[in-house]
Amino acid sequence: MSTAAQRLSYREACRQAIRAAIQADERVFLMGEDVGRYGGCYAVSKGLLDEFGPERIVDTPLSEAAFVGAGIGAAIGGLRPIVEIMTCNFSLLALDQILNNAATIPHMSGGQFSVPLVIRMATGAGRQLAAQHSHSLEGWYAHIPGLRVLAPATVTDARYMLQAALADPNPVLVFEHIMLYALEGELDPGVSAVDIEHAAIRRPGRDLSLITYGGSLPKALSAAELLAAEGIDAEVVDLRVLRPLDDATIMESVRRTRRAVVIDEGWRSGSLAAEVCTRIVEQAFYELDAPLARVCTEEAPIPYAKHLEDAALPQPEKIVAAARALVGGRG
Amino acid sequence: MPSLGADMEAGRLVEWRVKPGDRVQAGDIIAVVETQKGAIDVEIFQSGVVESFLVEPGREVPVGTPLARILGEGEAATAVPAAPAPTPAATVPPPARSRVSPVARRRAVELGVDLAALSGSGEEGAITLADVERAAAPAASQDRAGAMRRAIAAAMSRAKREIPHYYLSATFSVEPALAWLEAENARRPLPERILPAVLLLKATALALRAAPELNGTYAGDGFRHSDDIHLGVAVFLRSGGLVAPALRNADRSDLSALMHELRDLVARARSGGLRASELSAPTMTVTSLGEQGVEVVLPVIIPPQVAIVGFGSIVERPWVEAGAVVARRVVTASLAADHRASDGHCGALFLQAIGRLLQEPEKL
């Protein structure tokens, strides 16, 4: 094993995570639409069928309800399935399985059954895939008790969150943002595991907190650089775990900076950003020095046209504008 | 509390330099006041005896608040009940409910700060944590550079919002002036040598005599010309920001005196020992970025003044004289002037006059 930092894409990190999990535990297998011969609709599982064979890399019929249900059954039966759903938009077809079975069975069985299931799905917009492939529904899933919802936004999290998710006896949903797959990053050779409990400070700052996750993290970091050029020192908080939220890290950040912009690619009304803002007001109202602000997706189905898609989504410029408004009267 | 700048609303009394019973002369420094531009010495404008103090050190009071009672010659001491200082609330009706951030409200209780006496720097005038902490801070401001930045921001925003600037610039040969100055400096001992900047300042001050529309202030009721020429000099501070204190009666000082005053002013600007009157006095300002290699400066007028001249670097350039191209040292002067007070014609004549004066340096 080389000890030098390894540079790889987020997609490659996801693939390494699946390979390592399959190699480490014979109960682990991957299933989903086109994960085998086609290599996954975002090419995450390319090559894995050749390496591990059709028992571990399972192409399924085009029925989300059926293969998610099969995954739940396999998990209850003692296996450790990784179910891939092409995009979270299609996961709605399996919503009954996810909510009424996966999230509920451990509760309704009084703990007699656990559901150690991991469902991976792509989320988000930015590649002109039009409305039925571009929505961000992780905020909906973060509403559901009984699920753990993860949003890896870095190569390291993409590489190591899966093993922690597989170790969880309850169902875990992993949302991989489509714009992150091609991004490259350094894999720290000193890290061999990550937790799935805590948010992370990706950039420390004094003047305000940019709280975000997933595909909006690179945008928030770019915004922080733009703000730095104006003399505004922004802290960037990566939520990482959307359910249960790590309130402690959020509040510590807000207590330091006293201002927050929450950036969420979900629609604004009833968004995860709304939940984060409410918690800040509930737990840290007296620490605030300015109103909270949100940068969310415009309330429309994601447009196909490039310029409209760009306009609908959170962008660094929108984040900068929101941040600037909050620190206008900074002391 | 004297006004030490057009945008100053309040100041904090840091210390008294006199005691009740002391005899004071007009011009004596009697107190130190902390403003956004730093600690400023306050002079007294009348002679007499200090009878009593009306404001204790550490308090921030609005501009115009009496600080002390001075008995003039022959005046008898009066038993005056300590008059309460007028508060801003007396003149400005307070809003129904002031906007105070949650953390600022909590901190104000902890620090015993009266929110009603604060004006907020936040969005729509909201009082922020920084406003409260500034109000509670001991005399020395916690964030001098930040306060300076805010003072500059306020003045420059006002300038660009209110003042219709027009800009003119002209390039002159300073070869005769520099040749004269080099010869002059060669005769002088080192400490008495004169910088080229002083020639530019003196020429500007003299040119102003013939351009009264550029020398003075603009207030609500229109332009007010000043008979005296007090030239503000922009001094860049190493800690960030700048101040522009006045060279008083710059048109009447000879070059040696002007050099001496300039050196003194820059030193005191940088050490924080400017006098109140020096900051509020300028009737027009000069800024120079020549040392930084800039050729043209398009400056922003400092309200309530109506004009500012920017000088660029003195650079050697091809120059046509009597039909021949020769190497000459030249400088570009740019005028930004308030179109409410003057017109371009006046500004053009003024720049022309500076250029003409520089051709006869011995007369400066």
Topology:
The complex is a heterodimer of chains A (331) and B (364).
Chain A: E1 6-9, H1 10-24, E2 28-32, H2 48-52, E3 57-59, H3 64-76, E4 80-87, H4 95-102, H5 105-108, E5 118-123, H6 138-141, E6 148-150, H7 155-167, E7 172-177, E8 184-187, E9 200-203, E10 208-212, H8 217-229, E11 234-238, E12 241-243, H9 247-257, E13 260-267, H10 272-284, E14 293-297, H11 306-312, H12 316-327
Parallel strand pairs in A: 2-3, 2-4, 4-5, 5-7, 6-7, 10-11, 10-13, 13-14
Antiparallel strand pairs in A: 1-8, 6-12, 9-11
Helix pairs in contact in A: 1-7, 3-4, 8-12, 9-10
Chain B: E1 10-16, E2 23-24, E3 29-35, E4 38-43, E5 48-53, E6 60-62, E7 68-71, H1 102-111, H2 129-136, H3 144-162, E8 165-173, H4 175-187, H5 196-209, E9 216-219, E10 222-225, E11 231-233, E12 235-236, E13 242-243, E14 246-247, H6 255-271, H7 276-280, E15 284-288, E16 307-311, E17 315-321, E18 324-338, H8 344-358
Parallel strand pairs in B: 11-15, 15-16
Antiparallel strand pairs in B: 1-3, 1-6, 2-5, 3-4, 5-7, 8-18, 9-10, 11-14, 12-13, 16-18, 17-18
